[in-house]
Specification:
CATH class of the domain at 402-494: Mainly Alpha
Shape: flat
Oligomer: single chain
ANK repeats: 93-125, 196-228, 261-294, 329-361, 402-434, 435-468
Number of strands: 0
Order of helices and strands: HHHHHHHHHHHHHHHHHHHHHHHHHHHHH
CATH architecture of the domain at 402-494: Alpha Horseshoe
Organism: Flavobacterium cerinum
Number of helices: 29
CATH topology of the domain at 402-494: Serine Threonine Protein Phosphatase 5, Tetratricopeptide repeat
Protein name: Ankyrin repeat domain-containing protein
Largest sheet: none
Mean pLDDT: 94
Strand content: under 5%
Distance between the termini: 28 Å
Low-confidence stretches: 1-23
CATH superfamily of the domain at 402-494: Ankyrin repeat-containing domain
Helix content: 40-55%
Signal peptide: 1-22
Keywords: ANK repeat, Signal
């Protein structure tokens, strides 16, 4: 059993090591694909060390970026010929390339992928088939759906995790009933519902096209209070305007509606930009910012995590009963703001009494959340939040409950600049966490080269220290596939 746990840990850390340096691979930069590079350019970048099959931290790879940025199909086909780019490779959210081709309406590529054996019976992590993913994304090219149906899609049986069919999923994007009519001619019922009783009206409320909503009503499509929740969610890139919510309220749909996961309309609205007026509207209607969803997260916590608009934070604060209210993971607004939001929001929460010493259910405090927030691109924001926390008097150098020190957490980011920053604190570089690992052990597992390993040794990290499995850093480095692949000499660890 201990061997299996150990192997699982190593596998998870190795996956992290593969993705940590994704930003160094030109093929994982959207800007590269926006230039529509030809095959000669792609080959040149491969010769320079670019990896045409690498997954980034969100499981996107070069093929997905090439498809979504609409590179030429010749370039995409070349990428598909590279090792590690099997036609049924799983990428972000468990999607194969056929999903992304359908998403972009690329019929030629879809046909090519199908000719190469692309599976048509898969569902992604959201429960979408290829056809339903295209519909949920608003794909207007009905030839995409024709091709899916020709290759085994079943409109009545293929449902997402919520039990929604393609007609329901496309309803939010159909401005003139062209797509809805397409699916009704294929056998779907305009008055169908998902597993939670949501109708096409509810789904259409996401984009707030009042003309479409009125047309659905004339055709006898019903609705329920969930329409207000759907409207608050909007889409990935859109938010509804006040007149949409007022229209729904005129239909006697409750502004205080609660979704199936315990969420209010404000849980979603506070995440979006420029929503101050709408937030005030719903507060005036009695929506409670302290209402937790099933995960224990309130609308205010969502705002603290993802909305850097100080106006929004200040609108909500007077309504907050307990600024230290935590969700089921033990995360309060401050921890979420430190992890995801701006230094200014962190300062506002601290000034309003947020407990800087609070720990989550795993025993991690705000320092752990700060270290998780670090990226080289946002180093200045990291430094500002660090300074703000230090001014509260919290002991930044204290280890976490699991024994992880600043060095452990810095090594996890695989960034030499962060490690050098940690050096200014009085932290024992040879301290072991509860897994029996020192920072050097952890680095040996995830390092891409010898830079960080040698730097830790220069700082005094002991090469002779062993884990609970009696392994040294050399032993662990020997199991590091990245070091082996990159032909990095590790004898200096002996």
């Amino acid at each position: 059993m201990t061997i299996n746990i150990k192997q699982l840990f190593i596998a998870s850390v190795m996956f992290a090591s593969v993705t940590l340096h994704a930003q160094q691979n030109v093929f994982l930069e959207r800007s590269f694909w926006k230039t529509n590079p030809d095959i000669t350019k792609i080959k040149s970048e491969i010769q320079k060390g670019g990896n045409p099959s690498q997954l980034n931290s969100n499981a996107f790879d070069p093929v997905v970026f090439a498809i979504t940025e609409q590179a030429s199909n010749d370039a995409i086909k070349f990428l598909l010929s590279q090792d590690g780019n099997d036609v049924n490779k799983l990428t972000h959210d468990g999607r194969t390339y056929l999903f992304w081709a359908a998403y972009k309406g690329n019929i030629e590529l879809m046909e090519y992928l199908l000719s190469k054996g692309a599976k048509t019976d898969l569902k992604d992590d959201k429960g979408y088939t290829v056809l339903n993913f295209a519909a949920a994304s608003g794909q207007a090219n009905t030839k995409v759906y024709d091709l899916c149906l020709k290759n085994g899609a079943n409109l009545k049986k293929d449902l997402d995790h919520e039990g929604a069919n393609a007609l329901l999923l496309i309803a939010a994007y159909d401005k003139d009933f062209t797509l809805i009519d397409y699916f009704t001619t294929k056998g779907l019922d305009l008055k169908s519902t998902d597993a939670n009783g949501n109708t096409a009206f509810n789904y259409a409320a996401r984009t707030g096209n009042i003309t479409t909503l009125k047309a659905l009503l004339k055709k006898g499509v019903k609705f329920n209070d969930n329409a207000m929740i759907f409207a608050s969610q909007g889409t990935r890139s859109t938010a509804n305007t006040l007149d949409v919510y007022q229209f729904l309220e005129e239909l006697k749909i409750k502004p205080t509606a609660i979704g199936k996961n315990g969420e209010t309309v404000l849980h979603a609205i506070v995440r979006k930009d420029k929503q101050g007026e709408i937030i005030k509207y719903f507060l005036s209607k009695g929506v409670d910012v302290n209402q937790p969803d099933k995960e224990g997260t309130t609308a205010f916590m969502n705002a603290a995590a993802s909305n850097s608009d100080v106006e929004v934070i200040n609108i909500l604060l007077p309504m907050v009963k307990d600024i230290n209210q935590a969700n089921k993971k033990g995360q309060a607004a401050l921890a979420l703001a430190v992890r995801y939001n701006s230094p200014e929001v962190v300062r506002i929460l601290l000034n309003k009494g947020a407990d800087v010493k609070a720990v989550d259910a795993a025993g991690d405090n705000v320092v752990a959340y700060l270290m998780q927030s670090y990226t080289p691109q946002k180093a200045e924001m990291f430094q500002a939040k660090l300074k703000t926390l230090e001014q509260t008097g919290i002991n930044v150098a204290a280890p976490q409950k699991n024994g992880n020190t600043l060095y452990h957490m810095a090594v996890a980011k695989n960034d030499i600049s962060l490690i050098k920053l940690v050096e200014s604190y009085n932290v024992d570089i040879n301290s072991k966490n509860k897994e029996g690992m020192t920072a050097l052990h952890k680095a040996a597992l995830i390092a891409q080269d010898d830079t960080i390993l040698k730097h830790l040794i220069n700082l005094g990290a002991k090469k002779s220290a062993v884990t609970e499995f009696k392994e040294t850093a050399f032993d662990l480095a020997s199991e590091n596939e990245a070091l082996t692949k990159n032909k990095v000499a590790i004898d200096f660890l002996k």
